[in-house]
Amino acid sequence: MWQCVWEQKILKFFYIATMPFKFHLKRSRQYNVVSKNQYVICIELLDTTSIECTLNIDSLGQECLDNVVQRLGLGQPEFFGLRYISRHGSPSPRWVDMDKPLKRQLEKEAKNFSLYLRIMYYVTDVQLIQDEITRYHYYLQLKSDVLESKIQCNSRQASLLASYSMQAEFGNYDAERHTTECLQQCSFFPKDVIQAEPGGPDALLHNALCQYKNLGGVTQAAAEELYISIVMQLEGYGNETFTAKDNNNTEVILGISINGIMLAYPKSQLTHFYRWKDISNVINHKKTFRIECQSDSEDAKQFIFNESRDAKYVWRFCIAQHTFYMQHQESRPSERSNNGYFDSDTNDSGEQAVSMENRNMDDHMHWTSYNDLSTSPYPVVSVSSTDINNLRALLPSYRPAPDYETAVQMKYNNGGNAPQPYYANQSTIVGPDISCLLGNVVNRSRY
C-alpha cells in the first residue's frame, strides 16, 4: 500500500517537472482553451439599458448586431447599426463595419469596448416602419435626437412632440397619476428650446400637458407614429454631420442622409443640397473627399479633412447611405436601370477593386470612388403583356365603394360600434387632426 502511494507521488512529481514553462493549472485542474478565443462586449440600447454578448475574436460586426436583434425581437433590423466612440482626435461616434472582425476594429479605432445600438438608416415615410418593436426603438432614437438638438424644433413643435411622447409612454391622461410634478421628472424638451422660451420649462410643460389631455383614445402605437411623422419634417432629421474645409480653406459642414449630401457654410450661412440622383460619383483620395455631379454645368466640389481616416470614413458612409436609398426608396421595378454599377478602387488590403468601366488615372494615384450614384444597381426587368395579365389575375378583388348617401347611413346606423381605422402619416405640423385616431382601442402600456 505504502509503495503504491510513493509511486503516485513520484509520477506526479515527474508530471509537473515535465510541464511547459509558465504553464499553470487552475484550481479546478482544468485549462480552458476556448475562453482564450472569446470575449464579452457590452451594448447600450436605445432605452439606456445594456446587454452583454459573448463573441469569438473572429466574429464580424454583423454577428454582434444579429445577436442583439434576435434578443430584442426587432422585425426590421435593416435600420439599425452599432456605434463606438473613436479614440482619434476629439471623441466622436463611428459606425462599426459589419463585414470586418469586430474585435480588431475596436482595438484599432475605439476608445473602449462599448457599443451602442442606434438607428443608422432613416426613412422618409413612417408607413415603411411596420414592425411594432422596430417602431418603438425608432421613436426612442428620434426622441434622443430631438432632446440632444440634433434635430431642430421651435417651442410650439417641442410642446406638440412632448404631448405625443407622453401619450406614447404613459397612455391616456390620468389626472391623479400624470400631475405636473410627476411629468417634471421626465425629459421632454431640448435645452436650447427651454433657454429660448420666455416662460421657461413650466410654460412648455403647461402647453404640452393641455395637448396631452386632448389625446385620449389615441393608442400608444399611433402616438409613436405621430411623433415620428412630425420629426421627419424637421431640420436635421436623418443627417449625420462632418466638418471639413473647401479649397479656399473655408469651413464647411457636410450633412449626409438618405436623400443626399447637404453643404452648409457657417460663416456665410449658405447651404446647398445635392440629391443622390444629381451626384454621379464620390471620390476619396487621402485627406480629400470629392463630389462629382451629373450636370456638366455644375462644378465638382472637393473638401479636405484633417485626417485621411476621416475622409475615408465619410466616403464609406456615403456609400452605405446611397445603397440603402437605392434598395428602400427607388428599387421599384419601374424605376430600375441597367446602367448602374459600383466602382471601387481602394488601397485597403482587405478590399478588392470592382470596376465596370475603364478609368483614365495615373498609375501612381490611388483613388477611391463610387461611380454612377444617380442610377440603380439593379438591371432592367423586362415584363411582357402576357406576364402583366397573369399578374393582374393574381390581384385580390376589392368591393366597390358605396355612394355618399349609403356611406353616411352605414356610418351612423351600422358602424357606430365598429373600431375606426387610423392613419398616422401627418403631412403638416400645424393643427394635427387626431380624430381619425380615436376609437374603441384599449391602450397598451410598456411600463
TrEMBL record:
<dbReference type="InterPro" id="IPR000299">
    <property type="entry name" value="FERM_domain"/>
</dbReference>
<dbReference type="InterPro" id="IPR041782">
    <property type="entry name" value="PTPN14/21_FERM_C"/>
</dbReference>
<dbReference type="GO" id="GO:0030182">
    <property type="term" value="P:neuron differentiation"/>
</dbReference>
<dbReference type="Pfam" id="PF09380">
    <property type="entry name" value="FERM_C"/>
</dbReference>
<dbReference type="GO" id="GO:0016028">
    <property type="term" value="C:rhabdomere"/>
</dbReference>
<dbReference type="GO" id="GO:0004725">
    <property type="term" value="F:protein tyrosine phosphatase activity"/>
</dbReference>
<keyword id="KW-0965">Cell junction</keyword>
<dbReference type="GO" id="GO:0005912">
    <property type="term" value="C:adherens junction"/>
</dbReference>
<dbReference type="InterPro" id="IPR000798">
    <property type="entry name" value="Ez/rad/moesin-like"/>
</dbReference>
<keyword id="KW-0378">Hydrolase</keyword>
<dbReference type="GO" id="GO:0009887">
    <property type="term" value="P:animal organ morphogenesis"/>
</dbReference>
<dbReference type="InterPro" id="IPR018980">
    <property type="entry name" value="FERM_PH-like_C"/>
</dbReference>
<dbReference type="InterPro" id="IPR019748">
    <property type="entry name" value="FERM_central"/>
</dbReference>
<keyword id="KW-0904">Protein phosphatase</keyword>
<dbReference type="GO" id="GO:0008092">
    <property type="term" value="F:cytoskeletal protein binding"/>
</dbReference>
<dbReference type="InterPro" id="IPR035963">
    <property type="entry name" value="FERM_2"/>
</dbReference>
<dbReference type="InterPro" id="IPR019749">
    <property type="entry name" value="Band_41_domain"/>
</dbReference>
<protein>
    <recommendedName>
        <fullName>protein-tyrosine-phosphatase</fullName>
        <ecNumber>3.1.3.48</ecNumber>
    </recommendedName>
</protein>
<dbReference type="InterPro" id="IPR011993">
    <property type="entry name" value="PH-like_dom_sf"/>
</dbReference>
<dbReference type="InterPro" id="IPR029071">
    <property type="entry name" value="Ubiquitin-like_domsf"/>
</dbReference>
<dbReference type="InterPro" id="IPR014352">
    <property type="entry name" value="FERM/acyl-CoA-bd_prot_sf"/>
</dbReference>
<feature type="domain" description="FERM">
    <location>
        <begin position="39"/>
        <end position="329"/>
    </location>
</feature>
<dbReference type="GO" id="GO:0071944">
    <property type="term" value="C:cell periphery"/>
</dbReference>
<feature type="region of interest" description="Disordered">
    <location>
        <begin position="328"/>
        <end position="351"/>
    </location>
</feature>
<dbReference type="Pfam" id="PF00373">
    <property type="entry name" value="FERM_M"/>
</dbReference>
<dbReference type="Pfam" id="PF09379">
    <property type="entry name" value="FERM_N"/>
</dbReference>
<dbReference type="InterPro" id="IPR018979">
    <property type="entry name" value="FERM_N"/>
</dbReference>
